[in-house]
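user: can you give me the structure for this one chain? tokens are fine.
assistant: on it. calling the predictor now.
[tool input]
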Amino acid sequence: MTTKENMSIGDRMLAALHKKGWSLSELSRRTGVPQPTIHRIGAGVSANPRRESIEKIARALGVSAEWLWTGREGIPSKTTSADISDISLWDENTPLMDDEIEVPFLREVELAAGSGRFAIEEDQAETLRFRKRNLRENGVQFNQAKCVTVRGNSMIPVLRDGATVGVDLGKTSLGDIVGGDLYAINHNGQLRVKQVFRLPTGLRLRSFNRDEYPDEDYTFQEIQDQQIAILGHVFWWAMYAK
């Protein structure tokens, strides 16, 4: 299992990145650091990146460059006392605001962060509320967004068992893949969530917990034979602290 002691610069960057709910491409846009550089850092290929790039990434993510380099400082919480005072309560009877939309929360559909879990019947009785502006900023069509639960420990430390993820069902082609971003995948009837990388010969599926779950490489023929399909891009995630 990946621990704080053996997390790499890339692991810490990805943990802070997903705490923000950003994609790798969004981080590149906000920092000016080239997307291939960010992908190499996240994939652990660039073990000694330029300090200037790390400092830009740290500022954007709201963490210290020292923490990214060494892990000696924790990720600052996004919630402050000022934030807490702005929290409002709502239930199913609370009217939607003009800039809000309800996204179906499919509690009975679980994405396995591990070997896979068979999908069972969808139940769209529950919803989560999102700002339309936030969905637009992430390029998500309102009617293509769904929220589901992640099970398993292969995506620790970024996604723990029981985390909720938002999936953009409008990004399903191989051409839509941004290397290193998280995607929901249908693997021969099993629903999974993984980092996905395009390879010249096919796809690579990667877990954050690489100590227990090694990379899985599939050729284009194996993708077809094993009925591997991209269900959508993970654009948001959340979970209770433990």
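assistant: here you go. The chain has a mean pLDDT of 77. Strands lie at 100-112, 117-118, 126-131, 145-151, 164-168, 182-187, 190-199, 202-206, 216-219, 228-238.
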